[in-house]
Design a protein that fits this description.
By secondary structure, the chain is α+β, with helices and mostly antiparallel strands. It has helices spanning 2-15, 27-30, 69-79, 98-102, and strands at residues 17-19, 36-48, 54-56, 61-66, 84-86, 91-93, 105-108, 114-120, 123-133, 143-153, 160-165. It has a single domain, classed as Immunoglobulins (Immunoglobulin-like, Sandwich).
C-alpha cells in the first residue's frame, strides 16, 4: 500500500503543471489595496460535492487581490476560462513576483465559510481561496480545489458588497 501511495505521489508531482506569466508586476497598479475605503465585502466560500453536500471554507485563508494586469494574466493562465481549479489539477505559476503577495489582503473564513474584508477601497479585485478535503482517512487524493470570484468596488454602491465564491 505504501508503494502505491508513493507511486501516486510521484505521478501527481510529475503531472503538476506550471504556467508562465509574461506581465511584470507593477506595485503602483496594486497600491489601492493599501488604501482605506468605506466598503465592506461580506462573502461566503464553499464548494458542492457531487452528492450535493456543501463543503464550507471553514478556517481557510481567503485572499483579496487587486485585479491588476499582472493578476489578471496570472488568474487567466492558472484557471483558464473557469473560476475553479480541481485539487487534482495542480497548476502553479512558474515564478511569482514576491511583491504580488505584499499587495494582497487575507482573512480566515469562519466555520460556516463566511468571511469579511473591512474598509475596502474602490477598485477591481479577485477573492480567492483553496478548499480541499479527503472523503476518508484512506484517501490519497484531496478533493475540492481552488476557487475565485471577481468583485468591483466603485465607492458608489451600498457600503456592504455581498459575494459568493463557489467556482461557478
Amino acid at each position: 500500500m505504501r508503494r502505491l501511495a508513493a507511486v501516486v505521489c510521484l505521478c501527481l508531482a510529475a503531472c503538476q503543471q506550471t504556467v508562465k506569466v509574461e506581465s511584470t508586476f507593477d506595485p503602483k497598479a496594486a497600491d489601492y489595496i493599501h488604501k482605506q475605503g468605506e466598503a465592506r465585502i461580506d462573502g461566503h466560500a464553499f464548494l458542492k460535492k457531487p452528492n450535493g453536500y456543501v463543503m464550507h471554507a471553514s478556517g481557510d485563508v481567503i485572499y483579496l487581490i487587486p485585479a491588476t494586469p499582472y493578476a489578471k494574466e496570472r488568474m487567466r493562465r492558472l484557471y483558464g476560462d473557469k473560476k475553479y481549479m480541481p485539487a487534482t489539477q495542480v497548476t502553479q505559476a512558474e515564478t511569482t513576483d514576491p511583491r504580488y503577495f505584499e499587495f494582497t489582503r487575507k482573512t480566515k473564513a469562519e466555520s460556516n465559510g463566511r468571511f469579511t474584508f473591512d474598509r475596502v477601497a474602490p477598485g477591481d479585485y479577485y477573492i480567492a481561496t483553496t478548499l480541499t478535503w479527503k472523503d476518508n482517512e484512506h484517501d490519497i487524493l484531496s478533493r475540492g480545489g481552488s476557487i475565485y470570484e471577481s468583485v468591483t468596488v466603485t465607492g458608489k454602491e451600498d457600503k456592504i458588497i455581498r459575494v459568493v465564491v463557489n467556482g461557478i
